[in-house]
Amino acid sequence: MRLVGYVLIELAAGVGLAAGASGAIYFGSRAVATATAAYAASAPTPASAPSNSSGTRAAPTQLERPHAELGVARSSTYFIGVRDEVLLEPLRRAQLARVKFNRGGSSISLRLDFVGGFRASFKPDQTNEQTVPRKEIAAYRINRLIGLETVSPSIGRRFEVKELVDKMEEASKDLLPRFHAQTITDGGMVNGEVQWWIPVIVDAKIDEVNIDSPDGMTSWHKLLQHGVEEPPSAKLLLPQISTMVAFDYLINNTDRWSGSNAKTGPDGKMLFFMDNTFSFGTVLEGSPKVRAALEHVQKFSRSMVRRVRGLAEAELREAMLRDAAPYERLLTESEIAGVLYRRDTFLGYVDSLITQFGEGEVLVYP
Prior knowledge:
The protein is α+β, with helices and mostly antiparallel strands. It is about 35% helix and about 15% strand.
């Protein structure tokens, strides 16, 4: 089935897939516990909180994930079992302790250590056209809008260039000339995107083959075709690959299958949707690369498709304007138009498959 020409606008409701692993495994128990305590201290107790033995309302733990049912909207989203609000709060205001240059790659990327044990990556505004930090925040917001919890929480923040330089560790100072040459500054300040740090990532593999290698891609291309039986070794990652391909099409991420952007946690169970700064390009129908990837997939998540159907223009626009500082907005008018166009084209593609094979044969994942 080809994508172009299949455009269908429908609205529906639903919730997305949930991540179930403990956040402390990936983030470090001390940092998560500190962030949780700080958030709990400042957050009001929900009116719906259960009563404790004294008859007063008890606030639920911030790491507790409420049970959700299809069709019931969630007020909070999570990343590796931890509420997004808990992880974002220290990234907004925590004091900077140390800075390290992330080596490798063509982008300027820093690791920030904050007072209190929190850690984040920071991509500043820069001359590298493939790295536009506001787009990572936009991708995070859209990820949550369609019910996913696979992009690490991200937010914009503004730093003094002098502070970043002064707190740069000695081993990274040889890259300061590159930092100064490629970073876009404004009156001694630099804007950028701060994202919660995932300390351990490994290549995503099926049967010991990287899924973004030529052999790995050939394998999942075949396995995600209608009616093809999935081996037990692939059943965990295939639904996630399918959803990642759909998400990448929606945001027009042309950088996913470059050989370094398909990663999981150390247990190999959860696929992280990382490095989205080269998304939302000018091609309305999506680049040939993202279109080709989607056309290799004929099996999708039912709840994800429901959420994409329910992605309304007003909701998308609000998410791109809310809490956007230091940026005026996260996506331009043309970039928003592209997301909406690809939403409709994606749904048209899925519906064409359903017409051909039947709903149960296409929406095979929860």
